[in-house]
């Protein structure tokens, strides 16, 4: 798989581009397409949004559904947005203002600034304006701060699914909210790799976003990369080539 993905890498990436792409597609598909919740870790189930698979038809038939993606510039979230958009699911995205252009390239219908004090209300208004069935939220950040906003949005929209990348909130979760944690090794992703990934990469429908930043070549650059992570990075994947 890494070899076949490498030919679509663009001018910067190498096999590491294929490696993170595989992981991101697995996570995105598990976030969107699992039909029945299963075990993820003790006391925590996987999310089961049961959304349609992506397809190559342009435009694809409308799924009549809306999904909120929180932290939309992160790798799993950018892939979730692309996979959802390819299934004609309306995506309302939350991301930093400086990353809105990249998130738009992923196919988000509307993008809101996570620093906006009124972001919760604006997300609710955007979902209602979509006039589609609200499915839930994929939270690619999954911290107490984002959970508080997730639950406020879900409560106002009548409940739904909350798919997380870390253990989901355990307290103050409304009874009509189904929480789950992504476990990104699942046969549910097999049809996406088999039927969608390669032709979508070839046509440009599926993009390797966010782009990588090469920190250096060799183990001596690992500490430098870790320092950059600690300082904070946004809309990129730091790579140390070996």
Q: Keyphrases for this structure?
A:
single chain, 242 residues, alpha/beta, six-stranded parallel beta sheet, two-stranded antiparallel ribbon, 8 helices, disordered N terminus
Can you walk me through this structure?
It is a single chain. This protein has 242 residues and is an alpha/beta fold. It is 37% helix and 20% strand. The chain contains 8 helices and 10 strands. The protein has helices at 2-6, 15-33, 75-86, 100-105, 119-129, 144-156, 190-203, 222-231; strands at residues 39-41, 44-45, 65-70, 90-95, 110-113, 133-139, 160-164, 177-181, 212-217, 237-241. The strands form 3 sheets. Strands 5-4-3-6-7-8 form a 6-stranded parallel sheet, with helices on both faces. Strands 1-2 form a two-stranded antiparallel ribbon. The longest helix is centred in the N-terminal third of the chain and has 19 residues, at 15-33. It starts with a helix and ends with a strand.
Shape: globular
Give the class from helix and strand content and strand pairing: alpha/beta
Proportion of strand residues: 15-25%
CA(first)-CA(last) distance: 19 Å
Report mean pLDDT, rounded to a whole number. Answer: 81
| Gyration radius from CA atoms, angstroms | 17 Å
Q: What's the β-strand tally?
A: 10
* Unreliably modeled segments: 1-18
Largest sheet: 6 strands, parallel
Helical amount: 25-40%
Which strands sit side by side, in order, in the main sheet? 5-4-3-6-7-8
User: What is the helix/strand order?
Assistant: HHEEEHEHEHEHEEHEHE
Q: Helix tally?
A: 8
